[in-house]
Design goal:
The complex is a heterodimer of chains A (about 700) and B (about 70).
Chain A: E1 5-12, H1 19-27, E2 31-35, E3 42-51, E4 54-60, H2 72-81, E5 92-98, H3 106-115, E6 119-124, H4 126-131, E7 134-136, H5 138-145, E8 149-151, H6 160-168, H7 186-196, H8 201-209, H9 219-231, H10 236-258, E9 259-261, H11 269-278, H12 283-302, H13 304-324, H14 329-346, H15 349-365, H16 367-381, H17 389-394, H18 399-404, H19 412-421, H20 430-441, E10 446-447, E11 451-452, H21 453-479, E12 490-492, H22 500-534, H23 544-552, H24 559-573, H25 575-587, H26 594-602, H27 609-617, H28 626-635, H29 648-660, H30 665-675, H31 679-703
Parallel strand pairs in A: 1-4, 1-5, 5-6, 6-8
Antiparallel strand pairs in A: 2-3, 3-4, 7-9, 10-11
Helix pairs in contact in A: 3-10, 5-10, 7-8, 12-15, 13-14, 14-22, 15-22, 19-21, 20-21, 20-28, 20-29, 21-29, 22-30, 23-24, 24-25, 25-26, 26-27, 29-31, 30-31
Chain B: E1 6-12, H1 15-23, E2 31-37, E3 44-48, E4 51-55, H2 57-60, E5 63-66
Antiparallel strand pairs in B: 1-2, 1-5, 2-3, 3-4
The chains are: A alpha/beta (about 700), B alpha+beta (about 70).
Chain lengths: ~700, ~70
Amino acid sequence: MAATRILRVALAGKPNAGKSSLFNLLTGLNQKIGNFPGITVDKRTGNCQLDSGTAAQVMDLPGIYSLYPRTVDEKIVTDILADRNGAHYPDCVVLVADATNLKNCMLLLTQLIDLRIPTVLALNMMDLAARSGQSIDVKALEAKLDLPVVMINGRTGQGVAELKNLLTTNLKPSSKTVYKTGEELEPLIKDIQQKFNLTTPYQAYQYLQQTDNLSFLTPADKLFITARAKEANFFQHKYQGAETVMRYGFIQDLLNKVTLKLSDPEWKKFSYRIDKVLTHKVWGYLIFFSVLFLIFQAIFAWAQIPMDFIDTTFARLSNVLDDHFPDGPLFDLITQGIVPGIGGIVIFIPQIAILFACISILEESGYMARVVFLMDKLMRKFGLNGKSVVPLISGMACAIPAIMATRTIENWKDRLITIFVTPFMSCSARLPVFTILVALIIPDVKLFGFFNYQGLVLMGLYLLGFFAALISAFVLKLIIKTKEPSYLIMEMPTYRKPKWSNVGYTIIEKTKSFVFEAGKVILAISIVLWVLASYGPGQAMQNAEQITKIEAGDTELTAEEFEARVASYRLEHSYAGIIGKALEPAIKPLGYDWKIGIALVTSFAAREVFVSTIATIYSLGGTEDEQTIKGRLRTEVNPDTGGPRYTTAVGLSLLVFYTFAMQCMSTLAVVKRETKGWKWPLIQLVYMTALAYVSAFIIYQSLA
Amino acid sequence: MLPGETAVISGFRDDMLSVKLLEMGLLPGTIVRFNFTAPLGDPICITVSGFDLSLRVAEASTIIILN
């Protein structure tokens, strides 16, 4: 039966209170991630049928302690809740509270009450609260707050039906007022209330407190408010502090009346015991690095199987389509441009899914907060922050989700530095390039009969990227000036078993956002590159077959060899080939010729394209088989020296170039979005490319 | 303060930070326990009104305590 009424429900609450679990319980797979218009905060919404006549559009707000934001993500909450006429203003809010620690969940609740938003208090983790020796008198709580309270269990889904029922009843705002501004502010508040036609004084007070954070105010409105605030001697921090103290006074009073509690935190002893080990001087770091190692193992070894499968599937698909389609530019675009382009996106899904599974398990269990705790001091030396650890680890799979993960860093400078250096972490797109070059130039022998030289070089490249990230961060720390102090005030959640369905939802969510965010750019660029590589000026392209025939002369060529030669000739005379040749003077000091130049150009879409480009240039007829490419590269001759083209010097120079260079359009696009402008992505592009060029130059010149 | 000790909060030295600390439930008059430090001595973990919080030493030192 179709719903006749759609309620907008917003979920609010502090981090780790179980908001996401409730969101998943309410909406199931019926959720989507979008963006709030104009800003970069993810908007998680989902639909839920409440009863036969009512549906709800549920929105998951970022986890917050109060209406005063600390991170970019959190600014959105006041923006939504203070704007009665806004498109996202909810019909009611469900405040998810952690019953084991009701006190600091209530601050936001009292603010919602003062905003006069109809609110339901959902008490989560009542079972844990009971185990900790607390009992809460729900009836008394309801009466004192004048709003409905439900007990839910985010793990089992208990109480969700009751909550749904409650939402269908016409909820009214609570009649209580918790915080009254002092008398001296009353004229000011009244003015603003009148000017903007606001129903509650607290709303006007928020206009005063957060003038700059409210995006719906026009510049003229903001000027009016700041001018009035100045006249009335309004100091934001002073009043904010007083407000918080007053609210906690109310909360303490309330909790004294409605809760019974044993003072002994016996139930937490287990958590403390784990902390003793996990934050231990030796064991703490040892365990952290073992966890890291396990994650890498998962990303690189386990993800290989599905990745190989995807690779062959797309190659086959491309061939099948090629055989069945008639010739023509449009069909070529599909078989050689679009299908491999999509393949290039899909291939990263296993790694991204596994990485986010690991990160989400660590976050759900409460370990991530300990990693931040362990690493903060070390990271701070380099201008980073304990919270930079997660983005840097994610950067090993792909810089795009990693840069999006920096949003949890409160301080703008710390966040910017993290965004800036994350692309130095060797992402999975560099791996195919590394593998083939390392295999080519480093002998497959063992050091002390144990360590494989090739493996050591590969690890060295990862470390090189990591140290480049640290050193760059350190330099930036000295350059960027900021008035905003960096701080780390973070709750240490109690350890608990991860809820697997939440892990599942995170994987789906992150993968989806990667495919759609990065996918668009990668696909677009693959198409552009395809055009550049398949078309060229003049007649050379059309006459490729004839010219190849003439060149071949009397030599007998099989049909395949002939095709491959034609393709190679075409690439040489295409726009991409021309760009490669134009680049040659610039890259010659690094030891590269125009063929490598073409690969550098195409790598700008995504680094792993290097391999397929090389395959085409050396007329390998579309193969991506490592052995074949390796064999062909080994025999390539440098016409200037008469020796092999891929000497150790050239190989190392290329490896270092790929480690440092910013060759990823999608990353630049994400950086632009996250830093709100072209300034930082451009600096990043210039800096990384320059570093790559100079390092490759030094390596080649000193070895050649 | 040494790890394991408890004290009563009496105020703050930094206006900017105090707002954030207050929001987390560090109110004047509440009891705070210094649990342990991170292996490198910074940040530290404290317990206040029933939950654990991690702070940098510089931040923790803006909290004025009564003994």
